[in-house]
Specification:
The complex is a heterodimer of chains A (119) and B (226).
Chain A (H helix, E strand, L loop, with lengths): L1 H18 L10 H10 L3 H21 L7 H11 L3 H14 L4 H16 L1
Helix pairs in contact in A: 2-3, 3-4, 4-5
Chain B lengths: L1 H15 L2 E4 H4 L1 H6 L3 E4 L3 E2 L6 H8 L1 H6 L3 E2 L2 H10 L5 H5 L3 H8 L3 E14 L4 E13 L5 E12 L9 H17 L4 H12 L18 E4 L7
Parallel strand pairs in B: 2-4, 2-5, 3-5
Antiparallel strand pairs in B: 1-8, 5-6, 6-7
Classes of the chains: A mainly alpha (119), B alpha/beta (226).
């Protein structure tokens, strides 16, 4: 009897181990929608890729896991290009908060934006 | 005489058999320098597949970030590099990594050449064979922290749902052809990248950080040094 219990416990542990996600990040359709956009950049493929980025942020929050590196920044950058400066900058700040190592890079983007605005 | 033949055989075989070593042995500098962020440069495409570069660039961030590194968003990086008048990949390859640190603050730079991007069709299976040469250089010292040059094969066989007989074979063949030819290679490219980064020590954002020194990597002997 004990052996059965042990086996069952072992089996449950094995199954649980299989369920543990290998990676901590949720990426959704990131690569596919980015590729589609790169291949044929238009409003539709851009909208789809932005939807993916938004989806990654929402799902990660729901799962209580960090948003993958670069996702806040990429969406922020796209918004800034569409003249949604305020929303874009909020996202760039979020990238910096989530990944302090991105600080210099984000500052670079910001300074580029300023020189762009002055021209 | 027998001994000499045996010795020759051993030397001969050693050249073909993939070597196994620990991550610590394979890339010791990764553990001493511990880079946190990686800047991926657009690859040089030496393969015959015109799309290989795009496939690579759109699928590299995911597995590399999952390995635990901060990966600079590739789209923004290439935009900025273009604005700086640096859009030619060949030129970029000759820019020392320290320059990228000055500019972006990165710890390391990944220089990539796509050597092979071949697709093959068999009756019931298709596969993509990719050979990529990667050099991760320290943006502080310029030293090579990690190097990879190997052939990675990913199967693209269509899942026919287990239909038997000749009809099943036909369906499987059609499914494979469609899958290999028309639909996207994105998942395949991602798998190839995943396989490549298995040989890289984990970064700070991965649970295996600092725990994978004794993890075995399988690499060709020639990949050890350059």
């Amino acid at each position: 009897m004990k052996i059965y219990i042990l086996c069952a416990a072992g089996a449950i542990l094995f199954l649980l181990a299989g369920c543990t996600p290998e990676t901590e990040f949720y990426w959704g359709d990131y690569s596919s929608t980015l590729y589609a956009y790169k291949k044929a950049p238009d409003d539709k493929t851009l909208a789809t890729h932005k939807k993916t980025l938004n989806d990654i942020i929402t799902v990660s929050a729901k799962k209580h896991i960090p948003v993958p590196p670069g996702v806040y920044a990429e969406l922020g950058y796209l918004l800034i290009k569409e003249d949604k400066l305020k929303d874009g900058l909020v996202l760039l700040d979020k990238e910096m908060q989530a990944y302090p190592e991105s600080r210099e890079f984000i500052m670079k983007i910001r300074s580029k934006l300023q020189t762009g605005a002055q021209q | 005489m027998k001994k000499i033949i045996a010795a020759i055989c051993v030397v001969f075989l050693a050249g073909c058999v993939p070597a196994t070593m620990t991550k610590q042995q394979y890339a010791p500098l990764m553990y001493t320098e511990r880079p946190v962020s990686i800047l991926v440069l657009p690859p040089i495409n030496k393969s015959t597949a015109a799309d290989a570069k795009e496939y690579y660039l759109t699928t590299v961030a995911e597995p590399l970030a999952n390995t635990g590194y901060y990966v600079y968003p590739i789209e923004i990086v290439s935009d900025i590099l273009k604005q700086e008048g640096l859009s030619d990949t060949e030129t970029m390859m000759n820019v020392p990594p320290q320059k990228f640190r000055e500019f972006f603050g990165t710890d390391a730079v990944l220089y990539v050449s796509i050597l092979k991007w071949n697709t093959s069709y068999l009756i019931t299976s298709g596969s993509v064979t990719v050979q990529i040469e990667c050099e991760l250089k320290s943006a502080k010292s310029g030293e090579i922290l990690w190097y990879y040059n190997d052939v990675v094969e990913v199967n693209t066989t269509g899942d026919s749902g287990g239909q038997g007989g000749l009809a099943g074979l036909m369906i499987a063949a059609v499914a494979t052809a469609i899958k290999t030819a028309a639909t996207d290679y994105v998942p395949v490219a991602k798998k190839a990248n995943e396989k490549i980064f298995l040989a890289m020590p984990s970064g700070v954002h991965n649970k295996q950080y600092n725990k994978d020194m004794s993890t075995i990597v399988e690499v060709r002997k020639k990949a050890e040094k350059k």
